[in-house]
Amino acid sequence: MDRREFVRMGVAAGAVAGGNRVLAAPAGAASKLGPGGILDAGVWEQQQMMEAGKLTSHSLTSQYLARIKTIDKSGPRLNAIIEINPEALKIALEMDRERNLKRVRGPLHGIPVLLKDNIATGDRMSTTAGSLALNGVRAARDAHVAAQLRAAGAVIIGKTNLSEWANMRSTHSVSGWSGRGGLTLNPYSLDRNCSGSSSGSGAAIAAGLATLAVGTETDGSIVSPASICGVVGIKPTLGLVSRSGIIPIAHSQDTAGPMARSVADAALMLAAMTGVDASDPVTREGAGKAGDYRAALEKGGLQGKRIGVARNFFGSNDELDAVIEKALLDLKAQGAILVDTEVPNISKYGDSETEVLLYEFKADLAAYLKEYAPHAPVADMADVIAFNQKHHQQELPYFGQEYLERAQAKGDLDTPAYREALANNQRYSRAEGIDQIMREHRLDALVAPTGGPAWLTDFINGDHFGGSFSSPAAVAGYPHITVPAGYVHGLPVGLSFVGAAYSDAMLIRMAYSYEQATLHRRAPQFPASVNIGKAWGQV
């Protein structure tokens, strides 16, 4: 193996010399494995077994690949994985070799990870955003976040399906469907939707197809599928994680973030993902502002914290509200001080958010294709639209491409209408939005239901979202964490923690304390359907 291949596989760069060390457990974390065994275990348990010589990265990776065959490609056929990394076992072997040489890189050393299929990898896998227009197209190099994870010792075992073009294609789209990958099914009820656009990442982590996964979000695409799939999702502050090499929607809101079965695992992954990237200027604003996410994993993180309850995000369903009201009691029991309030001015940036996304999607997609896929058969938005029209039976069988067409009709980023819309977004989501309410009430965070439970997948009418708390933090570029809060007729729902810019570590501390006090998450059983009487979203 020459040095170029060695570095590309992520098995040399960043190796840390020194003795192997057992990853110390987060405060209060249980060491007993659950009924799912090692495949449903977290980073700490897996590292503990590898350090003890009871498990290897190669064995763990092999077991996940076998589970993907059993659960994802047969059996319930979740269809969460769009492509397997043919080099996964080779990388895992090298991680084992490094461990034997006492060169453990850190908490993610040898840990199997999945990437959403809009994150570029300069290996033998394609990077497509679920579009057949990019089918078979290999990226010129790794996205910065992929390179960061490789350097941390993670084993990238494959890529996950997603809502095509990260759900920025049609006003009547079906989340979790892509022309390349088909439909991802919800592990908690196979006839229901996973939400999106990080549908495959959410379903895969819920089903135990990897230890960790990366999702991306413009507005809701991490936290919504995480909530609906009963896992933890972190949308970090804009600027903590580079977007270089991620097929974009909008640079003013896009970010990658971790999806995991526990807050501890998500925090460890976020620590490996952050960092300044010269090719993404916004990361310079985040320089030195990443918190100590591992130190945040301690109980007592809610004691004395003033938390605003965003009441204008309640009321979509009585049963959902009942679950979250119980969560509020749990927060109080952990010492939190709750303040009923409302997030102001959310109606003032709904339309302008869409405008900004359309303008930036057109410009940012062309820039990505030029830099990371110059050999692709499409070079810009117009080419993608034409490809879909030519291959309409494969790409447009259920819904259209209205957002692509609207984006193509926009001007460049010097257009006054774009600049005005962007300024409007930032004003009402930040200074006269989250910042205002947190200052007025001296709050440490805001909480609300992340959204409703999964709806029946509907290829006729499209998605039926049951409310969402994603937009305030998404438009502002502020951190948002969702944690399992319970179930509505067996369908998971999450509790959201939102804070000011760069308060990620504080939110992790609060989310971890809530999670450890409640431990709501249950592994899915893959039922064909659940009987809840009246179907969500179809009343």
UniProtKB/TrEMBL annotation:
Its EC number is 3.5.1.4. Signal peptide: none annotated. PANTHER family: AMIDASE, OS04G0183300 PROTEIN. It comes from Duganella vulcania. One of its GO terms (molecular function) is amidase activity. This is Amidase. SUPFAM superfamilies: Amidase signature (AS) enzymes (SSF75304). Residues 60-507 form the Amidase domain. The keyword Hydrolase applies. It comes from the Bacteria. InterPro entries: Amidase_dom (IPR023631), AS_sf (IPR036928). Pfam families: Amidase.
